[in-house]
Write a structure and sequence with these properties.
The complex is a heterodimer of chains A (188) and B (234). Chain A contains three helices and nine strands; from the N terminus they run ααββββαβββββ. Chain A is of the alpha+beta class. Chain A has one domain. In chain A, the strands form two sheets. In chain A, strands 1, 4, 5, 6, 7, 8 and 9 form a seven-stranded mixed β-sheet that branches. Chain A has a two-stranded antiparallel ribbon with strand order 2-3. Chain A is globular and about 70 Å long. Chain A starts with a helix and ends with a strand. Chain B has one domain. Helices cover 48% and strands 9% of the residues of chain B. In chain B, helix 3 packs across helix 5 and helix 6 packs across helix 7. The N terminus of chain B is likely disordered. Classes of the chains: A alpha+beta (188), B alpha/beta (234). At the A-B interface, strand 3, strand 7, strand 8 and strand 9 of A face strand 4, helix 5, helix 6 and helix 7 of B. Strand 9 of chain A pairs antiparallel with strand 4 of chain B, so a sheet runs across the interface.
Chain lengths: 188, 234
């Protein structure tokens, strides 16, 4: 009886632990797939009154382009009051910086065409950058108290003077996480 | 008026930011309505490059940093510090009314520093421009920019900095090249400064402009010559 009780406790703990981690993994998957794209397709040849957009077929084919992504080993972290951002991510400046917390390698994932290498050191020299198509930066994920909203910062650098960083707000509706807002934080 | 007798703009928020910068050893560039943080002022070569661009007063300079003239609604600060996701320069424009350009790597050649100042200032001015446009100000004199924002939105997101880069390959290569030539006291022909102008934009050359340029390889050779011989801020 005592043994069965222990098994139940362990089982419940494992389910809880795996669920909380699955949120991180799922959210990273969504924002990474959103942010990391291959080189741009050519712009429209003529500029007229009609607004053209890139077709879904083109986007689908671009998403199949293989990319080698290095992941910066240290997470970014929010500084100061981020709670207000759950209501409105445009509410003032977003403070963040690099933390000492290491990226959990198992959480890093994206579409099949992306191959990730988590770097051992926080090194962004030219030699490192040239080995990869881009360097990925991620923050820890912040959840609201109900765990149905999440904030995450993602940065992507492809070379000198070529990087951008965004804040994503996601919401969980019917067990599906979806991006509901994106804010540009920085560009270089 | 501050202690040094300089006028502080009427806008209260801006005045506060300026006063804070002055108290911390920074400098308010009255003519250009930008704040030079004390960390920026302490870097001799960076400050020299900024001052040379100011005195050249090129068309590009007037249309970027100069766009902040007499517009206290938009603040532009230059400083030296850390960028979270790059080790060179970054423009924090999440609050377009208070844009901060940070230089992390200041070891570049002076011409490269000047290019970095101009490149980041273009981002700053585009962020200011978009904010004005979204606020309802009728400033739609850049139809191509908004066409690009619409065209690439599904790929890179709305008003993405990546789209700025694509736009810059189309509209800013020649102005940057011209400004850098002036910066270098017109030492060489324009082709010698093209390679610098493409920094940060090569990967966003969607129209393959550089790829189709028969002189592309020569630009890189010219760059070495410029870096070896420039005397400005060196």
């Amino acid at each position: 009886m005592q043994l069965r009780k222990s098994y139940v406790i362990i089982f419940v703990f494992m389910v809880f632990y795996s669920c909380s981690n699955n949120f991180d993994k799922e959210i990273y998957n969504i924002v990474i797939n959103s942010k990391i794209k291959p080189l741009p397709p050519p712009p429209p040849l003529s500029i007229g009154d009609t607004i053209s957009t890139i077709s879904k077929n083109v986007i689908d084919s671009l998403n199949k382009v293989p990319l080698k992504i290095a992941v910066n080993p240290f997470l970014l972290d929010f500084k100061g009051d981020y709670i207000k951002l759950f209501k409105n991510i445009n509410d003032g400046r977003v403070n963040y910086s690099t933390s000492n917390v290491k990226v959990n390698k198992e959480d890093i994932n994206g579409r099949e065409s992306l191959k990730f290498t988590v770097l051992e050191e926080d090194v962004l020299d030219t030699t490192t950058i040239k080995k990869y198509d881009g360097i990925l930066f991620l923050s820890s994920i912040k959840y609201n108290s109900k765990k149905n909203k999440a904030l995450v910062i993602i940065g992507y650098t492809t070379g000198k003077l070529s990087s951008s960083t965004y804040l994503y707000l996601l919401e969980n509706n019917a067990d599906v996480w979806e991006i509901t807002n994106i804010k540009r934080l920085s560009v270089s | 008026m501050d202690e040094g007798g300089d006028c502080i703009p009427e806008n209260a928020d801006f005045a506060e930011v300026v006063a804070e910068a002055l108290l911390e050893g920074g400098e308010f560039d009255e003519m250009n309505q930008v704040i030079l943080d004390s960390t920026f002022l302490q870097n001799e070569r960076l400050l020299c490059a900024y001052n040379k661009l100011t005195s050249d007063n090129s068309e590009l300079y007037k249309n970027t940093i100069g766009a902040f003239i007499n517009d206290p609604e938009f603040k532009l600060t230059f400083k030296v510090g850390e960028c979270a996701t790059t080790e060179d320069q970054c423009t924090d424009d999440d609050d377009p009314n208070n844009i901060v350009i940070t230089f992390e790597d200041v070891s570049f050649n002076p011409v490269e520093l000047a290019q970095a100042i101009l490149h980041e200032s273009i981002h700053a001015e585009l962020a200011r421009f978009v904010k004005q446009y979204l606020s309802g100000v009728d400033i739609n004199n850049r139809p191509l920019l908004f066409q690009y924002y619409d065209y690439y939105a599904d790929l890179y997101g709305e008003y993405s900095g990546d789209i700025d880069h694509i736009y810059m390959t189309q509209k800013y290569i020649n102005p940057i090249t011209q400004a850098l030539r002036e910066f270098d006291n017109n030492n060489y022909t324009l082709d010698y400064y093209k390679s610098f102008a493409w920094d940060g934009l090569r990967e966003w050359d969607a129209a393959n402009l550089l790829g189709m340029d028969p002189l592309a390889d020569e630009y890189d050779d010219y760059r070495v010559i410029v870096n070896q011989n420039t005397t400005v801020c060196n």
